[in-house]
Design a protein that fits this description.
The chain has 235 residues and is mainly β. The chain has one domain: Thrombin, subunit H.
């Protein structure tokens, strides 16, 4: 599933999902499950892909869990957070087991990073949020949220950081010292410079590009093929 945004043609994929819930901190409950997903592309030239599982994956969640979506309350210069598992890592925390009162279950949780909405750019009917923050490898695709507790809402999806070109010097040959207190000797007439040429690398500028969540929400509402939560089935 690679290529320019908006050209996803794959209709189904398989992915390995790490067990979210276990009975300890040390990781002896670590195991992977292979899950089949149906692919929903939310629209042309939008860098969001929605994967629909064939069964409910989230277990042990609070029955009043109902994360809202929208950007009506997002203010420029305010506070927001984005979630993810940078470099493939997360952390575990004990939670009360709703099905067994008095007992604890261990859950994998994402890291939370702070950001600030800096701007909102419109490109061909797409809304792209510009966030002030540092995105690390593995955080792309994570949700961006604002608010707290029951007022918390997701309003965007991390795409990636905006690169900033940096001039760097290539590493010295093996065995050669990195720096010297003695300045370089001036070039003699007709002699070529021995100063290594600078190279350009794309560094993290501190600006994050995030796509507005609404196209994904519309795609999900237009394709109601996902599994229902138990309380929704009972109704």
């Amino acid at each position: 599933m690679t290529g320019p945004a908006g050209v996803f043609t794959t209709k189904s994929v398989q992915a390995n999902i790490l067990s979210q819930i276990g009975d300890g901190y040390e990781g002896h409950d670590l195991h992977w499950a292979t899950v089949a997903f149906t692919v929903i592309d939310p629209g042309k030239d939008i860098d969001i892909l929605v994967l629909v599982p064939d069964h409910l994956l989230l277990v042990g969640y609070p029955r009043n869990f109902n994360l809202k979506s929208g950007a009506d309350g997002v203010g420029l210069g305010g506070d927001c957070e984005f979630l993810g598992f940078p470099y493939g890592g997360g952390w575990k925390s004990p939670w009360a087991d709703p099905e067994h009162p008095g007992t604890k279950i261990w859950k994998w949780l994402p890291f939370v990073k702070h950001c600030t909405p800096s701007g909102l750019v419109q490109q061909e009917e797409k809304s792209i949020w510009i966030l002030d923050g540092i995105n690390n490898e593995g955080l792309s695709g994570g949700p961006v949220l604002y608010g707290t507790a029951e007022n918390q809402e997701v309003f965007a999806v991390i795409s990636g950081f905006h690169p900033e070109p940096f001039e760097v010097l290539p590493a010295p040959p093996s065995g050669q010292t990195q720096t010297s207190s003695i300045p370089d000797a001036p070039n003699l007439q007709g002699e070529e410079s021995n100063v290594p040429k600078k190279e350009i690398v794309n560094a993290n500028s501190g600006f994050i590009l995030a796509f507005d969540i609404q196209p994904a929400i519309k795609a999900i509402q237009g394709n109601p093929i996902g599994p229902l939560r138990p309380e929704a089935i009972s109704k």
